[in-house]
Design goal:
The chain is an alpha/beta fold and 318 residues long. It has 14 helices and ten strands.
Length: 318
Amino acid sequence: MLSSRLRRVAVLVLEGAKPLDVGIPAQVFTTRASMPYEVRVCGAAPGLVTGGDGLAYHVAHGLDALEWADVVFVPGYRFPDRDDPPQAVVDALIAAHDRGTRLAAISTGAFALARTGLLDGRRATTHWHYARALARKHPLVRVDENVLFVDEGSVLTSAGAASGIDLCLHILRGDLGVAASNHAARRLVAAPYRSGGQAQYVPRSVPEPLGERFAATREWALRRLGDPLGLEALAQHAAVSPRTFSRRFVEDTGYTPMQWVMRARIDLARELLERSERSVEQIANDVGLGTGANLRMHFQRILGTTPSEYRRTFTRGE
């Protein structure tokens, strides 16, 4: 049984907050029987907060919600390169982090986290349109504009609004496991795991006609992870040469085809470890890794733990 310990989520709404950025964590973590989370939406003070895109928010909580929370989301807001959050907000974020609270930014919310200094020397991302502005304004931050999100442990950042879903599902995977994350993704009608990067959304002067075909090949591969899946088989399904497939796959996803297949196999193994009593040897065969020794090697390399210890994490309770 997974732990049912209640986890507390605060969504910090700043002036000019973007509606999608606010709504994503509020909806993903909304309290329900299958989701042991409680959500509070807060601002610099209780009351009306002027948002972006013609909306406003009436928040019931002030910065005291950050003292209560286990994780704080900072949605993106308008003019982040021009307007800094109030000092009281910056101080409250720093104090929350010092108490062990995780801080997670969606899109341009990364500017607020950068203002605290907590991103200095760390990797971070933001919406591709603002990535260079973040690097200019906060030169100590290692801005990576080619990823959907960055997990630095106690501070996490994500790209544009839809990447907030990727970040929330990533946090769910860490808290409750792959099965719970996949369940939430189905409820949201979202991809449980997007392996791509922001580069695929940046305007290009030359059309890229193979995107849908490559997406279909990834879906095809996910249904056949227990089978041999070499570069030749993947390229054949996409009806391109192995060289073209490999080059374009890296551009689209940030991984080589075989790196992507391996991570997909490890994700499937995680779900089987959480939801079944099958042995490590059986799971290794189910996901196309052949032997338990092979599964253990790749599990340790990618996740930094063993299959047995991972299974105990999601069965011992808290």
